[in-house]
Amino acid sequence: MSQYRTFTAADAVAYAQQFGGMDSPDELVDAQEIGDGNLNLVFKIFDIHHRSRVIVKQALPYVRCVGESWPLTLDRARLEAQTLVEHYRHCPQHTVQVLHYDPALAVMVMEDLSDHRIWRGELIKGAYYPQAATQLGEYLAQTLFHTSDFHLHPHNKKALVAQFINPEMCEITEDLFFNDPYQIHERNSYPAAIEASVAALRDDSALKVAVASLKHRFFSHAEALLHGDIHSGSIFVADGSLKAIDAEFGYVGPIGFDVGTAIGNLLLNYCGAPGQLGIRDAAAAREQRLTDIRELWQAFATRFARLAATETHDAALAAPGYVEAFLKKVLTDAVGFAGSELIRRSVGLSHVVDIDTIADEEMKHACLRHAIELGKALILVAGQVDNADELLIRVRQYS
Predict the structure, then answer these.
(1) Among 25, 168, 181, 312, which has the highest number of CB atoms less than 10 A from its own CB?
(2) Residue 316: how many CB atoms within 10 A of its CB?
């Protein structure tokens, strides 16, 4: 077994030469550390012509944005690699390819996506990728259906649950999504100017009961192998292409969590648009985000239903009308989880640049309040939302 050590740029180059699958590995000569997330080192590996060719990613034994005072399991590197490998098996067109991984070094080598851009940044500047929402819906449908009871034999499904037990990373989600924003906690981070909105979360008993139900579903509904953190910063886009990355939170959980996290991040961009763009451009961007949400859900639900119609092997789950009832339940879950994503990204430890980079402080505070109020509303009305159009009506009501 390899002995864990934290990689330098030279280590990353040597590792890529060995495991990058290059015909001429000696042409890999340089590395640049580009990791800007909360958890990992990420190296771009360049060849002699200064072209980026592969990515080397290493998990650190602590939360990078906090430091060594918050230790973290290295097993998340195995879980991330195996989640991406499993998702790639079912949806290669929309999942980054893992070329090699070493669980002992907590390192993996992946395809380079330098010809793509991070979707969050593109959304913020108003760039539009007309197929992205539909492609994300396709990714979610393919990966979640094929790792669910609708497709897998019960023995294989239970083995999948055991393989992807991810308690430490799940605990982070459980705390940041469902605990911290609703209490006074040192991890919370928000401007003093929005204290009244945050305090109202702590004092809303109906909201806290609804959040408890969401957390209980996250605990107990082992429906499919989730990405676990499928936000617009973990998605690369190019003209006609979309690729999911960063699956270290992968585990077998409620399907609506992945769908809701994706919708919630589109809504965070919706809330931040007035602070990032001019009045006219912001209005157009907001309408496009709502269209994106409708297209994402329709692509997901349509593909999932079609797969269920031809590939469901369990007689009970194949009963006429059941998949439609199940998808309605997924939408209910997704709306609630989208609301919790809006709140935790406004109040908790990890924010989004859609709102955090707004230069005008008063506008930033207004966008944060909007995200909090919209999140609260979605959590409370989730059970009343029957379709995507009803969801968009609810969003407009709180805008």
Answers:
(1) 181
(2) 8
